[in-house]
Amino acid sequence: MPGDPGRVPLIAALLDNAVHVASNREFVTYTGTLDGVEVSVTSTGIGTPSSAIAVEELFRCGADTFIRVGTSGSIQSGTKSNDIAIVTGAIRHEGTSNHYMPIEFPAVCDVEIVQAMCKAVDRLELPHQVGISHSKDSYYGEVEPERSAVSEQLLDAWRAWRIGGAICSEMEISTICVVSSILGARAGGIMAMHGEGEFGPLDNLIKAAVESVRELISSDKKKGK
Amino acid sequence: MMEINDKQYHIQLKRGDVGKYVLLPGDPGRCEPISRLFDNPKLVATNREYVTYTGTLDGVPVSVTSTGIGCPSAAIALEELVKCGADTFIRVGTSGHIQKDIKSGELAIITAAIRDEGTSRHYMPIEFPAIASIDTVLALQAAAKKTGATFRTGITQSKDSFYGQHEPERMGVARDLLERWKAWEIGGALCSEMEASALFVIASMLRVRAGGVMMVHGKEPMPSLDILLETAIQSLRELISIDRANGKKLTI
Fold this sequence. Notes:
The structure holds two protein chains of two kinds.
Chain A (H helix, E strand, L loop, with lengths): L7 H5 L3 E9 L2 E8 L2 E6 L5 H13 L4 E10 L9 E10 L13 E2 L2 H14 L3 E9 L2 H5 L7 H14 L3 E3 L2 H11 L2 E9 L8 H20 L3
Parallel strand pairs in A: 4-9, 5-7, 7-8
Antiparallel strand pairs in A: 1-2, 2-3, 4-8, 5-6, 5-9
Chain B lengths: L20 E4 L6 H5 L3 E9 L2 E8 L2 E6 L5 H13 L4 E10 L9 E10 L13 E2 L2 H14 L3 E9 L2 H5 L7 H13 L4 E3 L2 H11 L2 E9 L8 H20 L7
Parallel strand pairs in B: 1-4, 1-5, 5-10, 6-8, 8-9
Antiparallel strand pairs in B: 2-3, 3-4, 5-9, 6-7, 6-10
Helix pairs in contact in B: 2-6, 3-7
């Protein structure tokens, strides 16, 4: 589940026999196979509102494992651009998940997915961090907080996330996790971070995401799923 | 900070690509049909959920840009369009009915929005009202009279969760959703959609004009959106005409 519909065909190119199955609004879907098992790519659009819709409707179509793949800002200093973030849980700094569960409920990623991602990045020898993502509703609230009337709150909150050890900031994963928890589905996320140095192409991120799905398929097969 | 002539990060537009007057549907698929109601429409950018066409109405450049679903992506569209020089926005889309006697196909011309979403809180404390520009409300009313649309004027609920509205009983916060929905109904809100409140709050902060017209989905099947689109187009003509009469600059 990339955010950007433009990234769907790029990811689908790494599947076997991928075909375009639907395009509507920000939701573009391709389906192909990996190791003989059907796998799809669906874009969510930016933000948790459209992401929640994508998860809900995909689940109704029978999907039960959702992996967000996208870009993010880094929160910890020393992060290099294109370092990969493997997400374990998310700060619910957004509105959508509140329509599902009270704010106290944690947005947590599926452990099997986190494991599969760690194996994939190790195999590909990609620099990465594993940790918590900050999921926000306002892009410009993060990158230009001083402009907001609630800038002190935003700056205070950002400081808290950094002190709390969050590694990256993006706009979808918390809701994907909370909605998946309610549906009994699995969710996870893998993100390329913006950090020190120029941000490059996403080839390694996409490879890592696809490799994670192969890992997951392999471990599901072993478990007789 | 981006240079003023750089392409904006998400909408992939720069100064010169759009007019001052912009229609904002949620669905990128509605941009092309709307653009056909412009003179000399041209597709100027497509990125993510943001599709933009620019043409003219009465000789003045006008644009249509899709926002995607929800306030997070709508806020980005508005911010970046303002950076490109646009200053008048009409959200045009569909909505659910809150008042039970509204029939499918009626238009709701929006005066203000319930901030039942997350994005606008990143801009202004929750106490600040999401108010549509009076210019847009008046222009939309004048337009609806000309197109012959059946319409009401009032408040919309802008929400973050489509399924939280349509299947509230399924949610962990079901009682709260049902209670709040009852409150919006008692408060007289007409309709429910997913973008207006953030557009209005951000427009207030940026000192630009924003309004909205929604076709309301009642109990009956939804009719064609033609009258909605015609009314939105006519509202731009009304605004252009009023601005021209007031000696305002009509181009960026």
